[in-house]
Amino acid sequence: MALIELIQESLVKVPLTAAHKDDIIRELIEVLASAGRITDSVAVYKAVLARESLGSTGLTDGIAIPHGKTTAVADLAIAVGVAPAGIDFDSMDGQPSRIFFLIIAPPDKSGPHIEALAEIAHMVQSASFRRAMLGSRNAAEVVELIRGD
């Protein structure tokens, strides 16, 4: 399943309001919980933190892709958030992260998880895409960008 098929307005938050790494993760988990995509927010939070303990998922160019695997989700679930001011997410380049993709997958379904990571990595390579994401005023604009509408 393509990433664009998974993203809908209820899974996007613009702007994110949290100011710290753990709170951004919690805020994105709440987006998934509110949309009915996960069954246990605490289990999801623990799964993401366990992955973060292996190394930060804060990449470069203002992108962070926190992710984890847990039985608290039946299928791949993705939340997207934009924090225009940026927050410290222990990124590889030491710069603040501004665009976030939270990916949660069941432990027995690695394929879609890997595909989503690859699709996001390809999409965010474009500086114009990143600029457009940062300029998004609402969830509808983010969905349009991701879908290429």
User: What is the number of helical segments per DSSP (H or I, 4+ residues)?
Assistant: 6
Radius of gyration: 14 Å
In N-to-C order, the SSE pattern is HEHHEEEEHHH
What fraction, in percent, of the residue positions are helical?
40-55%
Largest sheet: 5 strands, mixed
Secondary-structure map:
Layout: H1 3-6, E1 12-13, H2 21-34, H3 41-52, E2 63-64, E3 67-69, E4 77-87, E5 97-105, H4 110-123, H5 127-135, H6 139-147
Parallel strand pairs: 1-4, 2-5, 3-5
Antiparallel strand pairs: 4-5
Helix pairs in contact: 2-3
What descriptive keywords fit this protein?
149 residues, five-stranded mixed sheet, 6 helices, single chain, 18% strand, Mannitol-specific EII, Chain A, alpha/beta
Task: Provide a descriptive summary of the structure in words.
The protein has 6 helices and 5 strands; from the N terminus they run αβααββββααα. The model has no long low-confidence stretch (mean pLDDT 93).
